[in-house]
Amino acid sequence: MTGSRWIDPGVGLSYLTQMAKLPIVTLPDPILRQPSAPIERVDAEVLRLADDMLETMYDAPGIGLAAIQVGVPRRLVVLDCAAEGDKPEPRVLINPEILHLGSQLKVYEEGCLSIPDFRVDIERPSELRLRYLDREGKLQEHDAGGLLATAIQHELDHLDGKLIIDFLSRLKRDIVVRKFKKLARQDGPL
Ligand SMILES: [Zn+2]
Questions:
Q1: Would you tell me which CATH number, out of the four given (3.40.50.2000, 3.40.980.10, 3.90.45.10, 3.20.20.70), belongs to the domain 22-187?
Q2: 154 Cα–ligand 1 center, Å
Q3: Is 155 a catalytic residue?
């Protein structure tokens, strides 16, 4: 075959379905403090970003990731809080909003993909009601509890520039930030 402009179907398909792993922004990058803007339209670009974020989250591995953590200041979150060994439960939340927080509190030891090798016990409401747009751009309202409720609050904090180190005393927070600044200097500019 000569001069063919047909693309090999196998190659074309894998190109279309391939998801990309994105670099995760870490402390002390100031973008993590930037509030994220709402998504105006759920289009192919947004869905592509959501898929890439899921791929990035599973690879890390983590149970949640906000768009700002891959450097995109938009109100988009992906989550999967399925127990290890269970069927995956990928969730995409666009413009998520907490409508109601329960009065019961629960402590989880939280980590963050933007703050590697750091964990902190955080007490948060154990139940909430959430409103968001799904992948089809449809408005959804759901109740969440347990680990999912904690993960949702953690990720929504990211959309407002809030991090788990903000739950520490100022002294402890400064120690963590200093450590990450030092690490960033050692690694040099990326
Ligand atoms: Zn986080």
A1: 3.90.45.10
A2: 6
A3: yes
